[in-house]
Design goal:
Layout (H helix, E strand, L loop, with lengths): L1 H17 L16 H10 L13 H6 L2 H7 L17 E7 L2 H12 L5 H13 L6 E5 L4 H7 L3 H13 L2 E2 L3 E3 L10 H11 E3 L8 E9 L3 H12 L4 E9 L8 H8 L4 H11 L1
Parallel strand pairs: 1-7, 2-3, 2-6, 6-7
Antiparallel strand pairs: 4-5
Helix pairs in contact: 6-8, 9-10, 11-12
The structure holds zinc ion (ZN) (2 copies).
C-alpha cells in the first residue's frame, strides 16, 4: 500500500509537468492560482488569532461601523492576540481552512503539487506585512515518513520560497526529535507529543527575526512547542505564519450560532442569518 501511494504521487508529478496548469479557483489556463483568485483570498480574509479565533482588530471595530472600518483598512490590527499569550511577536494566518484555500493547502501537502510554491508563499508574505531585514524563515518540520510518502516536504518548500522572494535566509533550524503522529490524538496527548517533538539543529541568534512557517493551525500545539524550543535555543524575536486555520465550532442553538459566527466576515454572517430563518 505504501509503495502504491508513492507511485500515485510520482504519477501526478509527471502529469503536472506535461499537462497545462489550470487555476484551482476558476479553471483559467496557464497557472495553478490566477491573480484574481489569489486577490480574492486576500480580500476575504479577516485578521484573527488562530488560537482563540478572535478578531485581532476587534477593539477598533467595536468603536465604529464594523463594515466600513474593516473594508477601509482603518481598523488597527494588533500584531498578536493579547489574551492567548502565544510565544510570537506577530502571528498571521492567510485564512479559514475552507473552500479554495483548503483545496490549495491539501493539494500542496498531500498531492505534492510543487507549482503551488509561489502562490502559497505570496499569500503568506502578503499577510505577514513588513517584517524587516535579516529574517530567517524556519519551516515547522514535517514527519520524515510523510515527506517520503508524499514525495515533497511542503513546509520546507513554502519557507524556502518565502525566503527566496524576500532575499531572506531559510534554515532548517528545527528537526523532529520524535516522529509522532498527531492526527486523531486527544488534545492533551498532542500537547505532550509536541513538547517532545522538536529540537534545534543550531544555536539561534538573539536579535534576528525567526519566522516559523507551517501549513495549518489546528490546536497550535506544534507551533507553540516549536517556538518554545527556539526561544530556549536563544531566539528572542519570533514570528509565525500559517496558511489556514479552522473556524470555531458552532455549538448550541441557532441563537448562539449567530453570536459566535457574525464576527468573522460577511460570508459567516450570511450563513448565520440563513440558519436563523
Ligand atoms: Zn482563478
Ligand atoms: Zn487569541
Amino acid at each position: 500500500m505504501k509503495g502504491f501511494v508513492v507511485k500515485i504521487t510520482r504519477l501526478k508529478w509527471w502529469l503536472d509537468l506535461v499537462a497545462p496548469h489550470t487555476c484551482r479557483g476558476c479553471g483559467a489556463l496557464g497557472t495553478v492560482l490566477c491573480e484574481c483568485c489569489k486577490n480574492n483570498i486576500l480580500r476575504e480574509r479577516v485578521e484573527i488569532c488562530p488560537s482563540c479565533k478572535q478578531r485581532l482588530d476587534k477593539a477598533a471595530v467595536r468603536c465604529g461601523d464594523k463594515r466600513r472600518e474593516v473594508n477601509a483598512g482603518t481598523a488597527e490590527v494588533r500584531a498578536v492576540c493579547e489574551e492567548c499569550e502565544l510565544p510570537f511577536g506577530r502571528l498571521r494566518v492567510v485564512g479559514w481552512r475552507e473552500g479554495l484555500l483548503k483545496r490549495l493547502v491539501e493539494e500542496y501537502k498531500y498531492q505534492g503539487v510543487r507549482e503551488l510554491d509561489a502562490a502559497l508563499a505570496e499569500l503568506a508574505l502578503a499577510v505577514m506585512g513588513e517584517v524587516g531585514e535579516n529574517v530567517v524563515v524556519v519551516p515547522l518540520p514535517t514527519i520524515g515518513r510523510h515527506v517520503r510518502q508524499r514525495g515533497l516536504d511542503h513546509t520546507w518548500r513554502l519557507a524556502r520560497e518565502m525566503a527566496l522572494r524576500k532575499g531572506w535566509e531559510c534554515r532548517r533550524a528545527l528537526r523532529r526529535a520524535k516522529d509522532t503522529v498527531q492526527v486523531g490524538a486527544k488534545q492533551a496527548v498532542r500537547e505532550t507529543q509536541a513538547r517532545e517533538a522538536y529540537e534545534v539543529t543550531e544555536r539561534l541568534e538573539a536579535g534576528r527575526v525567526y519566522l516559523l512557517a507551517d501549513d495549518v493551525w489546528t490546536t497550535g500545539a506544534s507551533m507553540r512547542a516549536a517556538a518554545e524550543v527556539m526561544k530556549m535555543a536563544g531566539a528572542t524575536r519570533l514570528m509565525g505564519v500559517v496558511l489556514a486555520t479552522g473556524r470555531p465550532k458552532v455549538e448550541g442553538a441557532a441563537g448562539d450560532e449567530e453570536g459566535v459566527m457574525k464576527d468573522y466576515g460577511d460570508g459567516a454572517a450570511e450563513v448565520a442569518q440563513k440558519a436563523q430563518k
